[in-house]
Amino acid sequence: MPTPTTVELLWGIQPRPKRGPKPALSLEGIVAEAIALADSDGLSNLSMQRLAERLGFTKMSLYRYVPGKAELIALMLDTALGMPPERTVTGSAALEAGWRGQLALWCETLYERFRAHPWSLEVSVGVRPIGPAEMAWMECALDALAETGLTTAERLDTIVLLTGHARSLVQQVRGAGAEAFEQQIAEQFAAMVTVAAERYPAAAAAFAEEGAVVGGEGALRFGIGRILDGLAVLIASRARTPRPTLGP
Predict the structure, then answer these.
(1) What is the pTM of this model?
(2) What CATH number did the domain enclosing 56 receive?
(3) Contacts by 235-244, CB closer than 8 A, 24 or more apart
(4) Alpha-carbon span 193 to 207, nearest angstrom
(5) Which of 152, 196, 199, 236 is 20–30 Å from 163 (CA)?
(6) Residues 53 and 118 in one domain
(7) What is the pLDDT of residues 30-81, one digit of tens each?
């Protein structure tokens, strides 16, 4: 049987033999263990040899299911991202408010998936094969914006904006919980401005206020709100612009 390509593995279009004894391993099991290893030890510590040892098999046994690490990582990313949240608003309300609620949930969920698997930030950039889960995320966001009057390019750019926002905040809080990060960063900034309050009066005043925080889930929701506010203005302007009529 020819070696399956990454696309064939991602989309499950590689035929599998129907005869013979039941395999001792499964592609799904291999990917799940690889994700667990990357989550605990980082992607740099993931190797086919180490993965095989964790599974109790030889490295050559893994190659019967996945040709190499690059293909394995593509499968890991698609599995780790999983399916997007389901649409929560339908019908006429979807045009008025549903697109905001859906996109907010979309971005918040993506943030949580990236946080649960920080290594996914490294492998979800650049030109690469896209799996069904990633396509489902795109489909979900495009569908939420379908009746807004935005162009296809604008809807795709919206996905880029929201994804970038989620990614950047996960990079900031990487290695710490959101609340722990907010507390730690506030303490660090407060300590610095205390000794240099005269040089940085605006920063000193900001961190002197009760409840002042930087980053974390507060910044996530604030950023989502401002992105969606901007979209709302654009959508409203399109709705006010009369469409040209055809014919006499």
Answers:
(1) 0.84
(2) 1.10.10.60
(3) 235/148, 235/149, 235/150, 238/148, 238/149, 238/150, 239/149
(4) 8
(5) 236
(6) no
(7) 999 999 999 999 999 999 999 999 999 999 999 999 999 999 999 999 999 9
